[in-house]
Amino acid sequence: MTRFEDSFATDLQSEIPHLWRFARSISTSSEAADDLMQTALERALRNRRQYVHGTKLRSWLFAIARNAQLDEFRKVERRGHHVPIEEWYEQATAAPAQEKHVELGDVAKSLENLRPEERDVLELCVFSGLSHDQIASQMGVAIGTVKSRLSRARQALAA
C-alpha cells in the first residue's frame, strides 16, 4: 500500500461517522442509511484514484452518497416499487372489486327508494356529518322529527 493509499484509508475512516449522519439525513430509515453509506464507501474506495489529495474528503464523500441516492431513486422509478410476493398474493387472491361495485349499486338503489325527506335527513347526517340540531334548523323541523326520519331511513336500509 502506498503512502497516499494509507493516508486515504485513515482519512476515510475518520469521516465514517459524518457520512453515516449525512446518509441518515437523506434516507428514509436507518437500514437505508446503512446501505447508502456502504455504497458510498465502496464507490469511494473503488474510485480513490480520482480523489484529489488536499481537497475536502467529506464533501467528496457526501457528493458520492447524494449521487448514489439519486441513482437508487432513478432505479426505483424505472423498475417500479417492489412488492413482496406475500403482499402481491394477497392482492391477487382478494375478492374482485366488482363485488364492491355491485354492493354500492344496491346501496344507491336503496337510497333512491327512501322517501325524499328521509333521504335528505340521512344524507345530511351521514355524508355531511351534521348534528341533529343542525339538520333540524336547516330543514326547519323539530329535532324529534329529524330523529324519527333518520330512524325510519335506517330501518328501511336494513330491510
Plain-language structure description:
- The protein has 159 residues and is mainly alpha-helical.
- It has helices spanning 3-26, 30-46, 57-79, 85-93, 97-113, 116-126, 132-139, 143-158.
- The longest helix has 24 residues, at 3-26.
- The radius of gyration is 32 Å and the shape is elongated.
Secondary-structure element sequence? HHHHHHHH
Low-confidence stretches: none
**Whole-angstrom Rg:** 32 Å
Number of strands: 0
Helix coverage percent of residues?
A: over 70%
Strand content: under 5%
Global outline = elongated
Q: Tally the helices: what do you get?
A: 8
Give the termini separation. Answer: 85 Å
- Structural class, judged by helices and strands? mainly alpha
Structural key phrases:
159 residues; mainly alpha; 8 helices; 79% helix; 0% strand; elongated
Protein topology:
Elements: H1 3-26, H2 30-46, H3 57-79, H4 85-93, H5 97-113, H6 116-126, H7 132-139, H8 143-158
Short description:
The protein is mainly alpha-helical. It is built from 8 helices and no strands. The longest helix has 24 residues, at 3-26.
